[in-house]
Design a protein that fits this description.
alpha/beta, binds uridine-diphosphate-N-acetylgalactosamine, Spore Coat Polysaccharide Biosynthesis Protein SpsA, Chain A, binds manganese (II) ion
């Protein structure tokens, strides 16, 4: 074999080896079982229906395409996410669809310092109204585990208590929730829930709160800002903050006392808010409404798949708007100065 022919042969062998290596690398990348692959999987409901087969149809009142169930409120956003109001859903139909799937619903609740006093009424009301007939795990974060009350739980429901530190400022206790929830999902102390709800504890359930709220990412209209121009929303308006939203941006103002969704979505939203909060801290700036400002900033571009109306967060200290036919989750009156005082 001539020198030239040998060199050509060698070159083609090297080229083939490189192509093979590149192909196997891209195969490995595609098959890597990282947590991130969750993003590409169909939602839990679709997976389970694929596994179990379709559910049996049940008798419901016929819906008509030309008849809106309600005409006084917006039922779907411009990006086609439903807004949930009394009269817009059939609870029987939803339960017949979802209950056979045996979902587990997780809930994170922080009760630090004096806020442990809210746990008993919260849990007792949740046992009456929240996700009846579903499996529920309450994840309670507290610095005083002995003050977690014993509340009688229905079958399939449980309380898990995690120790957490008490930061000296109430704002810090509130905003650190993003970081803590994120860590507990990443280290797998919270797992195997189909949906996770992250709630304030100074609230009580006052009516049905169930499957109509299931979505990959769900947020709630703030009862104080549902009918004002967006340039008046209490977004963070200083460009130096990571939570900055310009006056002509945004759709709805959401309340941080409740957001929920699938674990991968909650990982994303809590990670984004935690990172933004850290950058703000380094820059010596705290957003107007702490994590609520960061949550709202996130939701400007990552719009929720479903929005809950103010029925899902009623302000017990203000008149109920006419559009709210049922209050399902209501604030508890509290003396801010007393409860946030250190002693
Ligand atoms: C009326 C008002 O002021 N609203 C703001 C206030 O909501 P809130 O007044 O509802 O805040 P909050 O005092 O309920 O704190 C939020 C949550 O953090 C936990 N917690 C807080 C303090 C504490 O000592 N122990 C404890 O466990 C607890 O789960 C509580 O529900 O603050 C939020 C966090 O920024 C939002 O900005 C709200 O818009
Ligand atoms: Mn609160």
């Amino acid at each position: 074999m001539g020198r030239l022919a040998f060199a050509a042969r060698l070159l083609s062998i090297i080229m083939a080896a490189i192509i093979l290596l590149l192909l196997s690398l891209s195969y490995l990348r595609n098959t890597e079982p990282a947590l991130n692959t969750e993003h590409n999987r169909p939602p839990a409901l679709v997976r389970k229906i694929q596994r179990n087969g379709p559910q049996t149809p049940i008798e419901v009142e016929q819906p008509f395409a030309l008849k809106a169930p309600r005409t006084d409120v917006m039922l779907v956003t411009p990006w086609l996410a439903p807004i949930i109001w009394e009269g817009s859903f059939d609870q029987k139909l939803l339960d017949a669809t979802y209950k056979p799937l045996n979902f587990t619903i997780g809930m994170t609740l922080f009760a630090v310092a004096k806020y442990t006093r809210f746990l008993k009424p919260f849990l007792e009301s949740a046992e009456k109204h929240f996700m009846q007939g579903y499996r529920v795990n309450y994840y309670i974060f507290t610095d005083i585990p002995e003050q977690v009350p014993r509340v009688e739980l229905k079958p399939g429901r449980s309380v898990v208590v995690f120790n957490t530190v008490k930061y000296s400022r109430w704002q810090e206790i509130s905003l650190r929730r993003m970081e803590i929830i994120n860590k507990h999902i990443m280290n797998k102390s919270i797992r195997e829930v189909d949906y996770l709800y992250c709630l304030d504890v100074d609230l009580i359930f006052t009516n049905h709160y169930g499957a109509e709220t299931f979505a990959p990412l769900v947020a709630v209209l703030h009862p104080g800002y549902f009918n004002i121009l967006r340039n008046k929303f209490p977004y963070e308006r200083r460009p130096e903050s990571q939570a900055y939203v310009p006056k002509d941006h945004g759709h709805f103002y959401y309340i941080a006392a409740m957001f929920g969704g699938t674990l991968n979505n909650i990982v994303d939203v809590t990670a984004a808010c935690h990172q933004a909060l850290q950058v703000d801290k380094v820059n010596g700036i705290e957003a107007a409404w702490q994590e609520e400002s960061h949550l709202n900033k996130y939701l400007v571009t990552n719009m929720p798949h479903k929005i809950l109306s103010m029925e899902y967060l009623c302000n017990s200290e203000a008149p109920t708007p006419a559009s709210v036919k049922v209050c399902r989750f209501s604030t508890v009156k509290k003396n801010h100065a007393e409860i946030r005082a250190q002693k």
